[in-house]
Amino acid sequence: QVQLVESGGGLVQTGGSLRLSCAASGRTFSSYAMGWFRQAPGKERECVAAISRGGSYTYYADSVKGQFTISRDNAKNTVYLQMNSLKPEDTAVYYCAATYATIILTTAQDYPYWGQGTQVTVSS
Question: What pLDDT is stored for residue 104 in this prediction?
Fold first, then answer.
């Protein structure tokens, strides 16, 4: 089992940047593919980015391509989400998630382990 704790959310103006971090503890972090999801009020939880166990492969939702960057440091048991050029529509609770898988997965049902979420609010 793995425990996940997100940090780095907050309030930012349109065009600003934030970097989210997700620290993992428990079993071997490098055995888990990781994903960042977000959920805005009244909307379904969506995967915005995911990364393979070794970090060689990544996935981005079309809505954030070229804007967000996912990375991981297996030595630090941490996955990051760099968010640039933020827009009000990026406002949501952001969650990191882990799944014991050799491939990238992008649906919430495929991730058994979740952090508590961190709020990102982008003001116009």
Answer: 94
